[in-house]
Amino acid sequence: MKSILTIENLSKSFTLHNLNKHIRALDRIDLDVKEGEFVGITGKSGSGKSTILKSIYRTYAIKGGDIWYASKKFDRINLAEASERQIVYLRKHEIGCVSQFLNVMPRTTARELVEQAIAEMGSSEDAAMREAEKMLAHFELDEELWDSYPATFSGGEKLRLNIAIAMAKRPRLLLLDEPTASLDNSSKIKVKILIEQLMKEGTTMLGIFHDLEFMKNLCTREYRIQDGKFLPGGNVVS
Predict the structure, then answer these.
(1) Ordered domains of the chain (ranges, CATH)
(2) For residue 95, how many C-alpha atoms fall within 13 Å in the half-sphere facing its CB?
(3) pTM for the structure as a whole
(4) What tens digit of pLDDT does each residue of 88-132 get?
């Protein structure tokens, strides 16, 4: 299989000026992800899991190492050096991210957010409306909330909406940052169903988890991280 994402010697550190402290979050991380794979990363809080995803998505500036992505538009591109314009395009059309926090435009309803995500991928207005309603219903968001502002939603409702927005785009690469963190079992099953569907459609995924049970029969490989370093060997998940 062809590689879609190759991380080479990725390092990241933070300086806490008020404490005069330097923290090394990632230490020479290497990772190769093939097209269609679902790679899981596990580890304790503070071990560096989220930092890897935020570096790929360019939420964090990358100071050391390279992140090569096989883009449909830009061919092989180093996300560590890509321009802001290129990153914005990739986020809109190729790379999706589900985080535990919903960060969206104010005064935009849940329905409008999902419709906009689908429309960005080239769907017609009518198709975007139909697909948005299917996604909102799939994640069991009450119809009364569809035309409401997400600021009024509970934490679980916001997370379900965030997942719906990201998955509705059918991205080539989907980053999952604790996607089931505040969900009940019913909602977790809904997420699992869509992940399996996206995998069948060819979406590549890289996710971090505390919920190891959720990962079973989903991830093709698992890496454990500790103190900013991968422990030896990526395990094939049966």
Answers:
(1) 3-233 (3.40.50.300)
(2) 25
(3) 0.86
(4) 999 999 999 887 666 666 788 999 999 998 998 888 999 999 999
